[in-house]
Amino acid sequence: MIRFYHVDKDYRGGVQALSDVNLIVHPREFCFITGSSGAGKTTLLKLIIREEMPTTGQILVNGRNLSVLSHRQMPYFRRRLGVVFQDFRLIPTRTVYENTTLLMTIMGIPHRERKRRAFEALRWIGLQNRMNAYPEQLSGGEQQRVAIARALINRPVILLADEPTGNLDPQLAHEIIALFQEVNAAGTTVVVATHDKSLIQDFGGRVILLHQGRVVEDGE
Amino acid sequence: MRIFRTLGYFIYEGLMALWRHKALHGFAIFVVALSLYILGFSAYLTGNVNALLSSWQNKLEVRVFLDDGLPPDRVGQLQELFEKNPMVDSVRVVTPEEALQTLAKLAPAFGSAARDMQSNPLPTSLSVRLKPPIDLKAVHRLVARVSGEKGVDQVLFDWDWVDKLRIYTRFVSLVGWLLFAALGAAAVFTVAAITRILALSRREEIAILHFVGSTPAGIRGPFLAGGAIMGFLSGLLALIGLFATHVAMQRLSAGDTLLLTWLSHAFLPPAEQAALVGLGVVLGAVGGVASLGSVDRWT
């Protein structure tokens, strides 16, 4: 599902974010990417969603070589991925329903279909009754759930989460990871970047440890 | 159907942006409307002047004065010569008596003076009406040719000032376009600046749209629609302003101001009204697009 071949990523000023990263994430796999701040977790996710390009090496995601993915093809590629961020990245001026269905609205999907899919996704995360609420009316945990619903509504093959529990208390963090496990159980590949060791210990599974841009441990 | 729903979303978003930032958009609409008003006003003036000139020009006649005592058969030949010309609508022989009567009507003093003379000093003439639309150059060629005909004393056709007036009208039109170009550029710049401000204020939203897989068109669409709606409203505002000016000029012309009567004869024709609004839409859309150069890279 995700393959890195000798991937290096250097930023301007000679900062090396990733160095000779080789890894394979299989379909329907659940894995954590962990490491201290600056280890390269976020860079690795940015490379997967093709927000960044590797300095050297090749990356394959969902059968596509990202080095040759054109600008035009990128939106269609990203529609097959779901991304969840630490800061939720919800649009404050839009309701829960609008936040989750924004892409479908732009794509011209009929209102009835949007509503059905939004209801389905929000019911899964337990927020089907908050469709008309605005993000500021929700707790942090609820906002993160909405972000997950938005990531899932297009039925992605891969769900990527960058420190999704960073702004949540431990109990909510557990709930969110449990949700990810449910998503994974339904057949979606899930990659979670986190520095929270207790979460990894509690949930287990494959752990890829990064240190100074290198994979130093891979529990494949 | 999907495309219509997407367009509907763009228009809705454009309208909502307008509503949320009323003052900012109001200013942009005013600037665009001003540029359109100036263009529209020059079109209004030139349109009326041109219509007036055309109506005059279509009533033009060539007056051919014949030599005294010209035999009727030669008069008939000359009449026939004109009638055969495709530019000519009709030819009428004006006898000296008829000419005298006309002169008496138009200028009684001259008329009575001429009547007091022992013999009628006015010559026989041909009144040649031309078919509209009139090609002035072709008429001049005809006049030159006929002037050399035997029995023709003088040919009167002095309508060059119509051409001159047309040149002035074109100049007014050109000035209108130049002013429009300057103000139009300012209008595009204003719309672009405002759209840019709005886009920057929605930077986070744009980044999210990139992540969820929106195409660049999906991101630009609402801004483009917002610009086009601004342009449309500006066009309407300019039309309202022009119509108010037209009504005001007509009211003023009721006080016997001949010039104003000519200039305010008719409002812009529907096609020009539509073109003005369409131009507003284009200006707004261009402004909207121009502002989003690097939006594809906002993350």
Write the layout of secondary structure elements.
The complex is a heterodimer of chains A (220) and B (299).
Chain A: E1 2-11, E2 15-25, E3 30-34, H1 41-48, E4 56-61, E5 64-65, H2 74-78, E6 81-84, H3 96-106, H4 111-124, H5 140-152, E7 158-162, H6 170-185, E8 189-193, H7 197-203, E9 206-211, E10 214-218
Parallel strand pairs in A: 3-8, 3-9, 6-7, 7-8
Antiparallel strand pairs in A: 1-2, 1-4, 4-5, 9-10
Helix pairs in contact in A: 3-4, 3-5, 4-5, 5-6
Chain B: H1 2-20, H2 22-57, E1 61-66, H3 72-83, E2 88-94, H4 96-106, H5 108-116, E3 125-130, H6 136-147, E4 152-156, H7 160-201, H8 203-212, H9 216-253, H10 258-263, H11 270-290
Antiparallel strand pairs in B: 1-3, 1-4, 2-3
Helix pairs in contact in B: 1-2, 1-9, 2-7, 2-9, 2-11, 4-5, 7-9, 7-11, 9-11
Could you characterize what this model shows?
The complex is a heterodimer of chains A (220) and B (299). Chain A has 220 residues and is an alpha/beta fold. In chain A, 34% of the residues lie in helices and 27% in strands. Chain A has a six-stranded mixed sheet with strand order 6-7-8-3-9-10, with helices on both faces. The mean pLDDT of chain A is 90. Chain B folds into two domains: 189 residues, no CATH class; 98 residues, Alpha-Beta Plaits (2-Layer Sandwich), CATH 3.30.70. Chain B is α+β, with helices and mostly antiparallel strands and 299 residues long. Chain B is elongated and about 100 Å long.
In short:
The complex is a heterodimer of chains A (220) and B (299). Chain A has helices at 41-48, 74-78, 96-106, 111-124, 140-152, 170-185, 197-203, and strands at residues 2-11, 15-25, 30-34, 56-61, 64-65, 81-84, 158-162, 189-193, 206-211, 214-218.
